[in-house]
């Protein structure tokens, strides 16, 4: 089962006002095994691979069947503002975050603006889907 999700960038962070789309893929072993989560929207973050795959401990070695989708999304939103740079998926983002904050913020803000366009493009594509709700 695959779910679509949207995370809004947290206020007072470089990600503020961003609307980031994700896919959450649950296999037959869920909830005993975590779902896979992937950003569909472009995002520049130390813990997100170029493919959109996410490096987050609760989706790997710290998974618990008590975690629900809400707690997963909340953890991802929290990670946006508080990346784990000791284990980066995107080394360039981690280095900029650590050593060149202004450049990091600039790159993040570029993806925030792109996320708005992604959302508008998606709205155009999904006009027929609204009838299904």
What does this structure look like?
35% of the residues lie in helices and 14% in strands. It is of the alpha+beta class. The protein has a single domain, classed as Ubiquitin Conjugating Enzyme, CATH 3.10.110.10.
Strand order of the largest sheet: 1-2-3
- Relative helix content: 25-40%
Q: Number of helical segments?
A: 3
The biggest beta sheet reads: 3 strands, antiparallel
What amount of the residues lies in strands?
A: 5-15%
CATH topology: Ubiquitin Conjugating Enzyme
Overall tally of structural domains = 1
Low-confidence stretches: 126-133
Order of helices and strands: EEEHHH
Average pLDDT over all residues = 91
Briefly note the structural class of the backbone. alpha+beta
General form: globular
- The CATH homologous superfamily is called Ubiquitin Conjugating Enzyme
* Radius of gyration, CA atoms, in whole angstroms: 15 Å
- Count of DSSP strands: 3
CATH architecture label name: Roll
End-to-end distance, in Å?
Answer: 18 Å
CATH top level label: Alpha Beta
Region (Disordered): 112-133
Family: Belongs to the ubiquitin-conjugating enzyme family.
Pfam families: UQ_con (PF00179)
Pathway: Protein modification
